[in-house]
Amino acid sequence: MAMTDVLSAEDIKKAVGAFSAAESFNYKKFFEMVGLKKKSPEDVKKVFHILDKDRSGFIEEEELKFVLKGFTPDGRDLSDKETKALLAAGDKDGDGKIGADGM
């Protein structure tokens, strides 16, 4: 399954482009721009599974660094600071990873 099976390619392009500058990533705005906030819990889980590259059932810090590339291959890597901020926002139980319920 591709990200464009769930989200609009145009929305993805605009959202990734909006945060192309280093240290500019804002996960709340990004998820809103790609249309994730309007999606059903089922669709959000589909996106989660696409981003869960190692199929562990969790998105770990190493995977989060490349989250924009999960939406489009030309997305940039997140900085360590951006990655840690995203992890802190989604890690509900403090185990250092995000479960499907954290998205």
Automatic annotation (TrEMBL):
Record bears the keyword Calcium: yes
Gene3D superfamilies hit by this protein: EF-hand
Range of residues in the leader sequence: none
Described function: In muscle, parvalbumin is thought to be involved in relaxation after contraction. It binds two calcium ions.
Residue stretches making up the EF-hand domain: 39-74
GO MF entries: calcium ion binding
PANTHER family named in the record: PARVALBUMIN ALPHA
Native source organism of the sequence: Mycteria americana
InterPro entries registered for this protein in UniProt: EF-hand-dom_pair, EF_Hand_1_Ca_BS, EF_hand_dom, Parvalbumin
Entry binding sites for Ca(2+) 1: D52, D54, S56, F58, E63
Keyword terms: Calcium, Metal-binding, Repeat
SMART domains associated with the record: EFh
One of the Pfam families matching this protein, by short name: EF-hand_7
Keyword Metal-binding applies: yes
GO CC annotation: cytoplasm
Positions with a binding annotation for Ca(2+) 2: D91, D93, D95, K97
Name assigned to this protein: Parvalbumin
